[in-house]
From TrEMBL:
<dbReference type="Pfam" id="PF09933">
    <property type="entry name" value="DUF2165"/>
</dbReference>
<keyword id="KW-0472">Membrane</keyword>
<keyword id="KW-1133">Transmembrane helix</keyword>
<protein>
    <submittedName>
        <fullName>DUF2165 domain-containing protein</fullName>
    </submittedName>
</protein>
<feature type="transmembrane region" description="Helical">
    <location>
        <begin position="126"/>
        <end position="147"/>
    </location>
</feature>
<feature type="transmembrane region" description="Helical">
    <location>
        <begin position="82"/>
        <end position="105"/>
    </location>
</feature>
<dbReference type="InterPro" id="IPR018681">
    <property type="entry name" value="DUF2165_transmembrane"/>
</dbReference>
<feature type="transmembrane region" description="Helical">
    <location>
        <begin position="21"/>
        <end position="41"/>
    </location>
</feature>
<feature type="transmembrane region" description="Helical">
    <location>
        <begin position="159"/>
        <end position="177"/>
    </location>
</feature>
<keyword id="KW-0812">Transmembrane</keyword>
Amino acid sequence: MTADTGRTGTSYDRLLRWGTLPVAAAVLTGTVALSMVLVAFGNITNFGTNQQFVQHVLAMDTTFKDPQLMWRAITSPALQNAAYVAIIVWEVLTAAVLVLATWLWAGALRRRGALDRARRASSLGLVMVLLLFGAGFFGIGGEWFAMWQSSDWNGLDSALRYVVLAAFALVVVHLPAGPRRSD
């Protein structure tokens, strides 16, 4: 019997189970997984669009062209394409880890336990997102290749959305989900 309603096993109780922290962690993991699946799918099926983005960022051809920075530019199409393919491979691996984590959350929620494996898989996938968009876009693209200087080929705002979502999900995944008193 619940203290607040006096009902036991009602549909109301079953509905409230959806409001738990593990469910929130599962939904956030699934949201990031879906996003990464779509990012990878888009880059694979529309290869040329973001290939141009990577080429321009690496070539630094729309930056301020400061001679003290331009030595960093990568103008070799082969190296640019290799970098882009590496990004896509990372996106696919990240999406796969997050889909697995979502599946593990779903299983753990049905069994009411075994949250540790789901939490660890989510953590791995979410850290992979942070590495891609934080280290990759902010650090390497934004700072090393001065992407922030480009008004045409600047992906920092887009990357920020992924970093914020992944970081928020990572925090929720690691919040303690123990029993709470309802005083």
